[in-house]
Fold this protein.
Amino acid sequence: MKKRLTATASLLALLLALPAAAQFAKPEDAIKYRKASFTVMAAHFGRVGAMASGKAPFDAKAAADNADIAAAMSKLPWTAFPEGSDKGDTRSKPEIWKDSAKYKEAADKMQTEMAKLAAAAKVGNVDALKSAFGPAASTCKGCHDNFRKD
Ligand code: ASC
């Protein structure tokens, strides 16, 4: 059992380390994948936001569950920006590839804030949720301003 777990963990580590391009047969597949992960993240983040802003009644379990999903999703899009996936059905700006260090920094910051939001949601009170929500939302907005066409 332990051996199998180790093997699974090694395989997962290998997959995560593979060059992004190797994981998607076509650029469109990468575009679809990253958009799907952002869409699912936004849906769950939005449910947390509705509670943080008082538009929806605070429900501690729903907040924690939704924030956990948003935090999990926040890890996914980043392998899905292979070279050549700047064209097609995407609003990605060329800066993602031209200034990839800055993009990675923004992506890392977003994941950190999403993890903090998930931790805050587990506290079980709306004030903790409110104070973590704003910083997380501004990491979304920062990336949209710099790296998304609109
Ligand atoms: C959301 C969502 C975003 C961010 C952004 C924050 O709920 O879907 O993209 O918050 O609007 O400014």
